[in-house]
Specification:
Number of domains of chain A: 2
Mean pLDDT of chain A: 83
Low-confidence stretches of chain A: 1-25
Number of strands of chain B: 0
CATH topology of chain B: MetI-like fold
Radius of gyration of chain B: 26 Å
CATH architecture of chain B: Orthogonal Bundle
Distance between the termini of chain A: 26 Å
Largest sheet of chain B: none
Strand content of chain A: under 5%
Distance between the termini of chain B: 51 Å
CATH superfamily of chain B: MetI-like
Number of helices of chain A: 15
Helix content of chain B: over 70%
Number of domains of chain B: 1
Shape of chain A: globular
Number of helices of chain B: 12
CATH superfamily of the largest domain in chain A: MetI-like
Order of helices and strands of chain B: HHHHHHHHHHHH
Structural class of chain A: mainly alpha
Order of helices and strands of chain A: HHHHHHHHHHHHHHH
CATH topology of the largest domain in chain A: MetI-like fold
Largest interface: A-B, 106 and 114 residues
Structural class of chain B: mainly alpha
Strand content of chain B: under 5%
Radius of gyration of chain A: 26 Å
Helix content of chain A: 55-70%
Mean pLDDT of chain B: 86
CATH class of the largest domain in chain A: Mainly Alpha
Oligomer: heterodimer
Chain lengths: 315, 308
Amino acid sequence: MTLTRPAPAGTATDPGRRPQTRRVTRPRWGRALGWLVVILIMLVTLFPFYWMLRTALSSNASLAEHPTSLLPTGLTFDGFRRALGQTTREEALAQGGSGAAMHFWQYLANSVVVATMITVCQVFFSALAAYAFARLKWPGRQVVFSVFLVGLMIPSIFTVLPNFVLIRNLGLLDTLPGIALPTMLMTPFAVFFLRQFFLGIPAEIEEAAMIDGAGRMRCFFRIILPMAAPAVTTLAVLTYITSWNDYLWPLLVSQSDRSRVLTLALGIFRAQTPASAPDWSGLMAATLLAALPMLAVFLAFARRIVNSVGFTGIK
Amino acid sequence: MSVLSSTRRPRAATRRRRSSDARNLPMALAFILPATIGFGVFLVWPAIRGIWLSFTDYSVFQPPHFIGLDNYRRMFADPVFWSSMRVTVYYVIVNIGVQTVVALVLAVLLNRLTKSLWVRGVVLTPYLVSNVVTAMLWLLLLDYQLGIVNQLLDWLGIGRQSFWGDPALVIPTIALVNVWRHVGYTALLIFAGLQTISPQIYEAGKVDGATETAMFWRLTVPLLRPYLAMVLIVTSIGAFQVFDTVSVATQGGPANASNVIQYYIYKVAFSRYDFGYASAMSVALLVVLSFITVVQYRLSRAGSVAES
């Protein structure tokens, strides 16, 4: 792509003699083409979400007849009722569903509990560590911090099997704490992310407070945390989304409804649908219900999330 | 006298600083204690244990016995392992290749056309939903019977494609579906890199008479190089660990055509309870990932040194 910078004023050969019209039209065409590509990408991005809504509101019978209808066909909420487990087995089968039990509210509650436990604890404990790395001078600080940084390089796939063995030995299989525990105390990313922000808070503020007799704990809770509130919130939102969307780890730990989170339930709902005639309406209703909480979080924190994507945390 | 005192004073100051550093130690240890426990128990210890298990016949039900290099010998002779590796590498090449090019184009366009938060929000949306949701959406869109994409192909005269069922199509399909989820995020990462390039550089380029194309290849790309390298390392490490989409959409099929390495490891560990062998394959994957990280890092550095 050649659209790196605003409006080029013709080529180099002799800019002075370029006709005025060329100067104006060429960049305009370039801009139009650029916008076309951006709009196309946005359409491809958003269309699947619309199609999900349209299919969820349709009935399976009329979906088969009008697969290309842009609007919901045979408008009905039966798909949602099946996804929420509000239909009897016979009703569900008659509507083209699988008739499998679906305890949606239980899965939703499990997801909320797991994501909240991970977010609150991970952010708090990582903030404590980040404070020690950013603000306290102590022997061995650099060494310990470097070791934490190496942890950033360990891919999660490598720790999954041994962690499963550990959780199993602790007797925490099929429990919500078993799902939450491995990421509850820290992630190297969280420590690193917060340390960067703590480093940016002027030392004078803390020194002034300490002269007034405040201890380190007081400084941490009353000065550092409030001043780093934007960073802490951003990290909390990102952590919440990541743990909500996780699939592999809950798949290993959870074995029954009691600890089944929403991503897992959706995978199981899909596995149970008849292969020959999938219950698309019910599947899309369930998918929509599973995606909705994170889309709502995104709407609420859009500015923060979009601006958080950058190199502060990685570099 | 003055000389003496001047040499003594800094030394005393250093000693005082050192001792105050040491006085901070208990406090610092208290602050890092929870995180360090988490780090040790759920990151370092599992990593060490994973390597140990790869030399054993551990099966969850029986305690591990040391069996030397048996798992590794078995791995080198296992055709499914090699086919999984091939499938995974194929996936990574398609996924990262397409994703990086589209993301770069999108990032450059966004940087040039609009700083609108709204537009960036839209392209980031798929990243906010899970891989499972993504897989579900595209299972429907690419369905052989009812999928709108196949209806379109039918109208265009290309004919319906069995995206999820054709061994030749299934990996590109999964790769592109995951491009859909990650391309906006990758574009915003590159976008952040573009923000660090000073506009004056382009002004200078223009004064020197460089064309847009020349400025893109001679200014944007070299200046973006460290960021692109970072993006490539992070995204390809992620891509090598592809699992969710395969697990939900194809279960490794048809006929192992989408049996990526992570899915094979999962199957060996949890269908056959062969944790020792699964751990050996995890170690192999870790070695591949480390190798790729080092190579990409070196290449990007060699580039930046050559540039300067």
